[in-house]
Amino acid sequence: MGGAAQAQTVMVPNFWDPKAQLERPEIPTTRSIRFLVDDDFPPMHFPGLDGTPTGFSVELARAACERLGLTCTVQVRRFDTLLGALAEKQGDVVAAAIPVTTDLRRRFAVTAPYFKIPARLATKVDQTTKDMPAFSPKVLQGKTIGIVEGTAHEAFAKAFMPNSTLKPFTELTAAEAELKAGGVDYVFADGLSLALWIGGEDANGCCVFAGGPYLESRFFGEGIGFVMRSEDEALRRALDYALQQLWKEGKYAELYLRFFPFSPF
After folding, report:
1. Which terminal residue of the chain, N or C, has fewer Cβ atoms less than 10 Å from its own Cβ?
2. Taking Cα atoms as reference points, which of 120, 264, 123 lies closest to residue 186?
3. Quick one: which H or E segment has residue 233?
């Protein structure tokens, strides 16, 4: 992660190199951009109270269109049909939480990541006091860590937390419940899901993050970007430019704080 800004106790991530000055490419302002989204992955994309699609990815797409002076529409599709619809020219850009992979880059053009889902450790509040020393791997020695079996988080924990006891669960909700009940010392998992739980009613203020965020791309991927057809290079560069400007101008942070009242970072 390039850095982070503190705002209202919520960590706003920065994925842009401040030294990289992107130039705005020429793209006709008469062009209308059709964004394809899914509506079943809050807070990234979900239906608003009036049924209109919203969410961090969706509103960031709208803001990018506005920054470029373009007209855009947002169309909802089932998640597993998004890339097929893009390939068949039923839309121009996918604005959904599709992980960027080598295979995806071979098939489509992708902007630089505008979001990454970090791995995080969660622990009970009573284990994190003002007198607790700064978090380090040594803190994990001899501790029991709940993980979801078969995940990248389990693989990472096995590689880098060798002096801890790993307790596998089939579902993250079960690991979270065990942490709340005191059956494990930590849970190591997807930071976005953990943030929604920690900040929600089910956790009831029991738990907090400790250590991290962990963003090793070999385990947790390159992140999430806007996806378009490979031949649409000018649009890719335009959206990369818009995203960088939205970060510099504070719009990215504004949207982030709106949709992530409890940050995974």
Report:
1. N
2. 123
3. helix 233-248
- Per-residue pLDDT tens over the stretch 117-167: 999 999 998 754 444 445 666 788 899 999 999 999 999 999 999 899 999
Distances (CA, A) of 49 to 44, 53, 55, 70, 99: 15, 9, 12, 26, 27
Q: Which residues make Cβ contacts (< 8 Å) with residue 220, sequence separation at least 6?
A: 116, 117, 118, 119, 152, 156, 214
Q: How far apart are CA 43 and CA 258, in angstroms?
A: 10
| Sheet containing strand 119-124, strands side by side | 165-169, 144-148, 186-190, 119-124, 207-214
Which residues have a Cβ under 8 Å from the Cβ of 25 and sit 6 or more positions away?
Answer: 234, 237, 238, 241
∠ CA 20-17-55 to the nearest 5 degrees? Answer: 115
Beta strand pairing call for 93-94 and 71-76: unpaired
> Which token pair is 105?
């880059």
Q: Give the span between the Cα atoms of 56 and 252, in whole angstroms.
A: 9
Q: Is the peptide bond before 43 cis (omega within 30 degrees of 0)?
A: yes
Contact 120, 214 (CB under 8 A): yes
How many residues are recorded in the chain?
Answer: 265
pTM here is: 0.87
Sign of CA dihedral 43, 257, 199, 188: positive
